[in-house]
Amino acid sequence: MTSATRADDADLRNTLPPFALRPVGAIIGLVAVVLLVRADRYDYFGDELYFLSAGHRLSFGYVDQGPLLPLIARYMDWVATGSLVALRIPSIMAALLAIGTAAASAREFGGERFAQVLAALAYASCPFAITQSATLSTFALDATLVSVLIWLTMRWIRIRNDRLLIAAAALVALDLQVKLLAPVLIAGIGIGVIVFGPRDLLRRPAVWFGAGLSVVTVLPGLVWQARHGWPQLAMGATIRAEQQAATGAIAGLPMQFAMHTGIAGFLALAGIWALIRHCALRPYLFIVVTVAVQAGFVLATGTRAYYVAGLLPVLFAAGAVWAQTRAFRRWAQATGTALSALAATIAVAAVFLLPVSPTALDRPTNTQSELSTRMRVSGTSGWSELAAAVDTAYHTVDLGERAYIVIVTQTYWQASALDRLGGPDLPPIYSPNRGFAYFGQPSDTDYTALYVAPETAEPVLRHTFSDVTSVARLDDRLGFPGIDREIVIWRCDHMIRPWAETWPQLITNVLDPGI
What we know:
Blueprint: H1 3-13, H2 21-37, H3 46-55, H4 68-79, H5 84-108, H6 113-125, H7 127-134, H8 138-159, H9 163-175, H10 182-196, H11 205-227, H12 231-247, H13 253-261, H14 265-277, H15 286-301, H16 312-323, H17 329-353, H18 368-378, H19 383-394, E1 405-409, H20 412-421, E2 429-430, E3 448-453, H21 458-462, E4 465-474, E5 487-495, H22 499-506
Parallel strand pairs: 1-2, 1-3
Antiparallel strand pairs: 3-5, 4-5
Helix pairs in contact: 2-5, 2-6, 3-4, 3-20, 5-6, 5-7, 5-8, 5-16, 6-16, 6-17, 8-9, 9-11, 10-15, 12-18, 14-16, 19-20
């Protein structure tokens, strides 16, 4: 490399505006305080309890996620046992990193202080960031890993430093331990680069090294999936049905986009337009293709709209850079400041006004759509009531019979709650539902089961056991379906067929709350 070339490279590295460290840092610091203050206001989400249960049954693979979330849940529970705040710190940190990535992406696009701050504010105040940080979840980590990966790719396009590609490969390998969705993202980036360039990205040895690294790291999980009949693929149909019932599937996607982005959705749409039309952003047209591929995947599969959320930071950044251009600067700054203030006010209000206590509800939750709304507004509730009811039912069993009894639940949420929140002397807990079904099954010497299920499950139970008796009921009219509403604790004796034959027929991916 000649001295002239090195000088040109140095000039290129120095063409970006300085990073708006103080204002962006202030935004991140303020958001961190707010999120930590509200971290324990929502009770456990059912999946958080499942991650805790899975963390005590570590494996290379699970039905619907990789091993990273259970490992994190176990570690955070070890650091501070039973602490909701500790459990949710990884998600809060992910949201804060995404705010910084939005600002860094704006800078990478050439955005000055205004654009960086606007992009950071847009992500900090969008509803998705609030949801992302509320519970420990796969999408909380996946969205941020995707946003950082896009930023690394953008930066490589500008400075051509292959160490960035190695870092990107490590992020892909890590993301594959969260969800197996990274190939869709990589396909989008690859198609975008082939169509719009820079095509030499695909000729870099670091890219193929990264591909090999990703294959090696994901291989144990794929082996687990293969040995268990690829349950991840079967989950696709289940998720599609859940989305259809809760949000209207494809027809509900525009509303889902609005709910994830809020007022900042206009900035994200402006970002797509700017990437297509704004000359300074043309080198990054691959992002538009990536968005199209991700959105196309969601449309084709009818799955969750938040699969696209990892692209929000870069879209906010592109929109913010467009807003700082001379033609729009005065109008955009006034409008952007006003909308940012409004979005921030709404976000802060939502953080401190929610959750609404379940005691404030005035009518039962009767549909999947109502249940989805209730979870956003009030979270889940009734775990302690469920655990207490099962504990009481168990202690009515004669001491001599307790050596041959197990607890079986209809849903993996119920099993996870009893596993983590139930009494210390409860017998083994099983569920044929979703991921918990792969944690084991009762032995053929377990002659009696306390079966937690709704009243509608009685016909199925009578095909499995000769003697089925209701021993307790949990039915708060305004309770949470499947937790403390319309729940029966059945005593089931004298199995018609051994557990080894019965269990595979009971396994299901459907999370049925009984409504």
